[in-house]
């Protein structure tokens, strides 16, 4: 009996969630220690209470609303444009082996180019307003979405179509009941990865030249040396991105409830 | 009257127009399958037996010859025909129940009705309790049972099976063969089975058709006079051994020929 309790605690600590929570608590504790002790550049390590206070201002007052609006418009528009172009093109390219042989190497090479380098071109054509950032986000999200749609088309085995044909399904029924569900999982994954890419692209572009946006405000705070505000805004963005990712995952889980082993691998580029 | 009739059916691959080499796969096959019969087609690998089954199932057009289901001349998928494929064909995005309901859904059967029928068929193939599992959670043998149930739930007059147990191990194959016999007896199902496994063909069939090496022709049809109903213990009987030998005698020469063809190609 004497051994039961410690081993139960050990077992509880060995769950991934407990390790994650403990790591987070540890980082916060170290941060707070450095901030309060003044050991290391007190200006660069504002205390947690300061950061949270500033975060409360964003949530409870309209100060961040125009910037939030700008960023949401850019990211939302980027995902929409990328999905509306990437999914149909991915289906088209993935439907014929000969097309894929031509297109796939090109996309793979283009996919690794940092999209931010094209930003000046978009400023030339679209101005310094939200649309140039939307374009950077869209082009960043286009690649994962189109590539994963192609990957989804590869999962449509010929035998699935044969099964439907022998059953007497019409071409329309085959499109809706075989192709669509077969590629859905990969397309959803593509959209989720695309969301990350769109956020990165759009907010990065905002930090360069912009009139509004969350990325723009981070650089503003940095420029004014409002470090606590800057950190709290980073935290704010992190929370928003996590929420968006979680919402998408839940939505797609409802739409396509197939248990997918391998989880979120590939979510990190 | 035969439920399935083939008259001089041939299949040639390649189009004469674009100058590509023409490959004859099935040559001048005629046969009659009676209602309720278990009919096996066996032949050396690459002899065109799967091609023949795909022609019967309407997945490939015949180059020449005629195909009748009942008295009706057909070219294309026919509602009387069900098809079970060799490779894994269960839809990974549908549960067992969803897979079995698929055909009924496509044919516009009401939800209650199709649920009832699908559950009944899932019970018949021995998968009760696995209705809500996805294929990724099932073994190879179970997935093939799902595929069989998915075809049978549409009540086809003829079930076409293309090496359905080919990817399974020997023991699973024998057990599933025995279950197929049980299902067949229960439903009085006509079955046409393509296989390269001599034991399997003798264990299950009323008649075994032996095909020649490519291009596939009918070499011989052997009547399997083992008692019905049978279970897998039949494979220990003397008569079983004699029939296997008889099939192999007819097949041996063709297998050697097919083997040589393959060697030449490499």
What do you see in this structure?
The complex is a heterodimer of chains A (269) and B (266). By secondary structure, chain A is mainly α. Chain A has helices spanning 4-13, 16-37, 48-60, 65-95, 97-111, 119-126, 130-154, 158-167, 171-208, 214-223, 227-255. Chain A folds into two domains: 4-45, no CATH class; 58-255, MetI-like fold, CATH 1.10.3720. The radius of gyration of chain A is 23 Å and the shape is globular. Chain B is 37% helix and 23% strand. Chain B is globular, with a radius of gyration of 19 Å. The mean pLDDT of chain B is 91.
The number of domains of chain A: 2
Just give the CATH class of the largest domain in chain B. Answer: Alpha Beta
Tell me the structural class of chain A. Answer: mainly alpha
Approximate strand percentage of chain B: 15-25%
User: What are the secondary-structure elements of chain B, in order, as H or E?
Assistant: EEEHEEEHHHEHEHEEH
Relative strand content of chain A: under 5%
Number of helices of chain A: 11
Topology as H/E string of chain A? Answer: HHHHHHHHHHH
Q: Give the CATH H-level superfamily of the largest domain in chain A.
A: MetI-like
Summarize the amount of helix of chain A as a percent range.
over 70%
List keywords for this structure.
heterodimer, A: 269 residues, mainly alpha, MetI-like fold, globular, disordered C terminus, B: alpha/beta, Rossmann fold, four-stranded antiparallel beta sheet
Topology (elements, then pairings):
The complex is a heterodimer of chains A (269) and B (266).
Chain A: H1 4-13, H2 16-37, H3 48-60, H4 65-95, H5 97-111, H6 119-126, H7 130-154, H8 158-167, H9 171-208, H10 214-223, H11 227-255
Helix pairs in contact in A: 3-11, 4-5, 4-7, 4-9, 4-10, 5-7, 6-7, 7-9, 8-9, 9-10, 9-11, 10-11
Chain B: E1 4-13, E2 23-33, E3 38-42, H1 49-56, E4 64-69, E5 72-73, E6 81-84, H2 96-106, H3 111-124, H4 140-152, E7 158-162, H5 170-187, E8 190-195, H6 198-204, E9 207-211, E10 218-223, H7 238-265
Parallel strand pairs in B: 3-8, 3-9, 6-7, 7-8
Antiparallel strand pairs in B: 1-2, 1-4, 4-5, 9-10
Helix pairs in contact in B: 2-3, 2-4, 3-4, 6-7
